[in-house]
Amino acid sequence: xxxxxxxxxxxxxxxxxxxxxxxxxxxxILDRLQSGPVRFNQLKRDIKGISQKxxxxxxxxxxxxxxxxxxVFPTVPVTVEYSLSELGTTLNESVSALAxxxxxxxxxxxxxxxxYDNRAP
Amino acid sequence: xxxxxxxxxxxxxxxxxxxxxxxxxxxxILDRLQSGPVRFNQLKRDIKGISQKxxxxxxxxxxxxxxxxxxVFPTVPVTVEYSLSELGTTLNESVSALAxxxxxxxxxxxxxxxxYDNRAP
DNA sequence: CTCATATGGTTTCTTTTAGATACTTACTTA
DNA sequence: TAAGTAAGTATCTAAAAGAAACCATATGAG
Lengths: 121, 121
Hints:
The structure is a homodimer.
Chain A: H1 14-21, H2 24-32, E1 38-39, H3 40-46, H4 52-64, E2 68-73, E3 79-84, H5 86-89, H6 92-118
Antiparallel strand pairs in A: 1-3, 2-3
Helix pairs in contact in A: 2-6
The structure holds a DNA duplex.
């Protein structure tokens, strides 16, 4: 059978998930975790510009969706490691592709932008 | 040489582009345009729940970034067609993958969510 | 002639979200 | 004693998203 879900439908639950994935910070977090578990403050240092609040919120949502796993180690001070779940790793390729497309095509985008801006106002 | 751009850097211009791509509506628009040119109101009808304002804004931004092309035909009333640019088509696979991952994995996500919600509060 | 429809938008207003900053608890090291 | 690290909350403000109405122009229905 076909999928019961349709991303083009307004009230389809997939819309909620797309909204989660289609987020700059979520993509950067998922991309960063591809090479293995990373701790909270390491993520904060690596993903430059993210605030603690947004990092915390985004991690919680991604954990709730089963895309990543949060593990607490009773060290002093406590250590919290985040890693991709099995489900999360199925996104690896698409996430990388999207997150790094910009790096590969930035020059073309910048050219398009200035061409656009120089057209008649 | 390596890329001059790094998506993990705060002030890197790629962040602006990632922010554009990492948008629910932008992804749905790019996905919808993969099969050929589509007119404004057709997009509005197909992508259920999008408002005219957001559709208009998102199309404008994607056009400015050179990802899609806007073509006006002097019919009555005027016809405006949007289609993927060459640059835009290079995103096809990643966009499809991300936009439709939710349809394929929705059940797993819903299960993860209720499991999460049933844990200790 | 008037009403309803279609086109592709813009304007306005309200609600939601994001971002910046400061604070918290607990322990270690200089 | 003060500063640093860890993993977060809480609070406040600025920006963005969403809903709804409006606009110009034109055609077809009644």
